[in-house]
């Protein structure tokens, strides 16, 4: 659940030569790119709409599923909510764990499964790859995502995690009734970096994102449409620095939290004044307005004095009780289906 910098250092030193000689598996034939839109990232294709599903048999509960992608077995946990109707298209919230964490820890950290039961969406917790899975050796407690600027073996080995998400969504469609216009992504730390990457490269699939303590680490970010963003960050975060930095071992420099949000506001055509949308205790949210469309706001929730934590989860790294990130991002998602 934290950036395991010592483990990453040991594994990175051991595997530097291997990483430098690694190849990108983004051309994996298991990824179906479909028909691409002009001037959009490869594979960024809007799925067909649906009004109903038939023949699906999965019932409410929590499942651990796997699929094959890029020559590896990839895993993900799915919580199908109480009251789920297998004939009715249902929203999906993808939640990506931080570096050195797991899908089970992300489920506990966020509390999304309990909220899914109350609100009626499907919560999905994908599992990142570690050093042994990418290179065959190294520290196992190093699971993460290729967020370009961060972190670990997925980033060093240029793992096609975006292609994995494509495959995951395709697999999910064979099991449960998803709503293609209401698929959302969030993540913590390294998972937050990766949610930004999905907004850059899969704007036709991901309706909106909500990173927590993770920045926009993609240097060539060209989303094919305006993607709403709700970013949460503690001003005293010593792991992913609020003001940006170059402190991720093996990673790349990353912008500040305000700059990450500002860049999406610019891409989203937000020309109106910034507006405060939330304030309680040490937590304040401010949104860029006048966006195209208006719902494509880019917002930053700052926890003054906050550490590397998930707001609302007080048991981990002193997360603030003044802001419930899980609830706030779901409300944000609810109002922003993909056009």
Automatic annotation (TrEMBL):
Keywords: Carbohydrate metabolism, Hydrolase, Polysaccharide degradation, Secreted, Signal, Xylan degradation. Residues 20-33 have a biased composition (Polar residues). Its main location: secreted. The keyword Hydrolase applies. It is found in: Secreted. Gene3D superfamilies: alpha/beta hydrolase (3.40.50.1820). Residues 1-21 form the signal peptide. It holds the Pfam family Esterase. Residues 20-53 are annotated as: Disordered. This is Poly(3-hydroxybutyrate) depolymerase. It comes from Corallococcus macrosporus.
């Amino acid at each position: 659940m934290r950036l395991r910098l010592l483990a990453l250092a040991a594994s990175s030193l051991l595997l530097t030569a291997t990483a430098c000689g690694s190849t990108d598996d983004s051309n994996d034939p298991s990824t179906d790119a479909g028909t691409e839109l002009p001037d959009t990232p490869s594979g960024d294709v809007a799925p067909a709409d649906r009004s109903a599903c038939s023949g699906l048999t999965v019932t409410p509960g929590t499942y651990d599923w796997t699929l094959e992608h890029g020559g590896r077995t990839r895993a993900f946990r799915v919580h199908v909510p109480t009251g789920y109707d297998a004939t009715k298209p249902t929203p999906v919230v993808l939640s990506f764990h931080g570096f050195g964490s797991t899908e089970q820890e992300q489920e506990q950290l966020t509390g999304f499964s309990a909220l899914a039961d109350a609100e009626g969406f499907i919560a999905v917790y994908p599992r990142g790859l570690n050093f042994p899975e990418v290179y065959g050796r190294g520290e196992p407690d190093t699971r993460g995502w290729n967020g370009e600027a961060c972190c670990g073996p997925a980033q060093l080995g240029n793992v096609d995690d975006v292609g994995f998400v494509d495959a995951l969504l395709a697999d999910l469609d064979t099991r449960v009734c998803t709503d293609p216009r209401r698929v959302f992504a969030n993540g913590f730390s390294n998972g937050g970096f990766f949610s930004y990457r999905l907004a850059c490269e899969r704007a036709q699939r991901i309706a909106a994102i909500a990173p927590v303590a993770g920045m926009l680490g993609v240097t060539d970010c060209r989303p094919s449409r305006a993607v709403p963003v709700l970013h949460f960050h503690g001003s005293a975060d010593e792991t992913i620095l609020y003001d940006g930095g170059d402190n991720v071992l093996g990673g790349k420099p990353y912008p500040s939290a305000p700059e990450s949000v500002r860049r999406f506001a610019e891409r989203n055509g937000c020309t109106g004044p910034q507006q405060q949308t939330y304030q309680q205790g040490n937590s304040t949210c401010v949104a860029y307005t006048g966006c195209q469309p208006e719902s494509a706001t880019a917002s930053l929730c700052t926890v003054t004095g906050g550490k590397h934590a998930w707001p609302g989860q007080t048991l981990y790294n002193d997360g603030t009780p003044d802001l419930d990130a899980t609830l706030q991002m779901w409300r944000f998602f609810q109002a922003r289906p993909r056009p």
